[in-house]
Amino acid sequence: MIAVSSLDDPRVAAYRAVADPDRLEAEGLVIVEGRLVVPRLLKLSAGGGRWAGAAQSVLLSPPAFEQMKDLVTRHSSVSVYVVPQAVMDGLVGFNMHRGCLAIARRPAVPALTAEAMADARRLVVLEGVNNPDNVGGIFRSAAALGADAIVLGPACADPLYRKSVRTSMGATLEVPYLFATDWPAALDLMRTHDWEVAALTTDGDALPLSHYEPGQRRVALLAGAEGAGLTDGALTSATRRITIPMTGRTDSLNVTTAVSIALYHVSVSARP
């Protein structure tokens, strides 16, 4: 444990970038927050996989340190800085009332290839989902409902942005994801490797979700941004279109809600 009393202490200078995600990404760093998420990061860093050895330091207020000291002191390779609440707020530029932050190196994210999805059975594919709350919520549902990975198409929010991580309760740290840089050709690649690309749409002519029976087929659920929805190119590249019928009091669902309902349906359909 290292006590820090000054805003100018260079050992904690990186935490000034909490509100500057572009700077963090350029420097290859991730900042996560919260007394539930930071322990998940430390556990992943202590294990194998893409986060192995990634955690660099933890920044705690005195109350947070008292609550978490048994956990954080077990990770001897990670510096633990304890700062007064006022110093923490000054560093990050706003009231960090949770009193708990951690910095880690950003892991490399693979591109979508046939090999990268060879062992998967259920994927969620996103196009233009640029709201970090929605991205975080979808990752949380993917973890809960059995998606093997998430594929990020163009203009999606960063899953490792602090708000995405917080909303996901740390699921963005654990659920694998891939970048689909060639779009919408990535969807054609899926189809040629026996994936059924099921596009979620509000189109009344689409197949109602309750009638969709994918069974044991490999399914990639495709969803777009709220409002705009999926582009024509993505819809054209999909294998089929499915819709969640609604009462008529609203014309659409939040994308996180829609993906969660569809993913649950697909997961149940695959059970013996």
Structure overview:
The protein folds into 2 domains: about 1-105, Ribosomal protein L30/S12 (60s Ribosomal Protein L30, Chain: A, 2-Layer Sandwich), CATH 3.30.1330.30; about 120-270, Alpha/beta knot (3-Layer(aba) Sandwich). The longest helix has 15 residues, at about 255-270. It has helices at about 20-25, 35-45, 60-70, 85-90, 130-145, 160-165, 170-175, 185-190, 230-235, 255-270; strands at about 1-5, 30-35, 55-60, 80, 100-105, 120-125, 150, 175-180, 195-200, 205-210, 220-225, 240-245. The chain has about 270 residues and is an alpha/beta fold. Helices cover about 30% and strands about 20% of the residues. The strands form 2 sheets. A 7-stranded parallel β-sheet has the order 8-7-6-11-9-12-10, with helices on both faces. Strands 1-4-3-5-2 form a 5-stranded mixed β-sheet.
Return the CATH architecture of the largest domain. Answer: 3-Layer(aba) Sandwich
SSE pattern: EHEHEHEHEEHEHHEHEEEHEH
Assign the CATH class of the largest domain. Alpha Beta
Mean pLDDT across all residues, rounded?
Answer: 94
Strand arrangement within the widest β-sheet reads 8-7-6-11-9-12-10
Helix run count: 10
The CATH homologous superfamily of the largest domain is termed SPOUT methyltransferase, trefoil knot domain
